[in-house]
Amino acid sequence: MGTVLGEMRNVPWHELQHAYGSASQVPGMLSRIAWGDGPTAEDALSDLGQWIAAPAVFDATVAAVPFLWELAATETVKDRAGVLELLAAILASGHDLHPEWTRAAHDAVVAGRPTAARLAADASSPEAEAEAEAEAEAQTHAHARAQAQARQQAVRDAAVRLLAAIDGHICAACPPRAV
User: Which of 19, 81, 88, 72 is nearest to 47 (CA)?
Assistant: First the structure.
């Protein structure tokens, strides 16, 4: 396995668009989400959401979704729940003038369903609970321990909500999915 976001350099971001123009800054936002501290990651997620998910999706959205799935699956990312919430926002958004972007963005989110299922299941498995306990034991302060447990619960909850959104997804741009 390569580094987190290692394939990002292979995307011609400068040729893609987001809500405010060229998507050339999207890699920087994804990097801030990957390696930033909590507030930095949250700010980057908010900005990225405004660029690629609200009020519409764009061709940059389609290119960004696989990297968002990668970030959601990377335990060192500070706001994995926020990444999952952004994926849900993308699934709920569209683009009236470019239904092909809508369908491609939705397909990219749906393609990550196994990751969401694993995140929802991992957080409640005995192994994950033991890992959380070990992480908590390694923490020296009760507050830090509580924060780690809250982050794990937030990831699980966001993954469960995203699974429900994926499984119930219906829109004009997307064909019905076999269940």
Answer: 19
Q: Which two tokens stand for residue 94?
A: 């569209």
Alpha helices in the chain, H assignment, sequence order: 26-35, 38-52, 59-72, 80-92, 99-111, 113-122, 126-138, 142-167
Residue 127 contacts by C-beta under 8 Å, 6 or more apart in sequence?
none
Residue 4: its pLDDT value, please? 85
Q: What whole-number distance in Å separates Cα of residue 166 and Cα of residue 147?
A: 28
Q: Region 33-52: what's the mean pLDDT?
A: 95
How long, in residues, is the chain?
A: 179
Determine the average pLDDT of the residues in 41-64: 95
Residue type, 161: R
Which token pair is 127?
């192994």
pLDDT digits (tens, 9 = 90+) for 98-123: 999 999 999 999 999 999 999 999 75
Q: How far is CA 40 from the centre of its chain?
A: 16
Alpha carbon of 45 to those of 1, 24, 173: distances in Å? 25, 16, 25
Task: Note whether 38 and 75 are within 8 A (CB).
Answer: no
Q: Span 145-161, mean pLDDT? A: 89
Amino acid, single-letter form, for residue 30: L
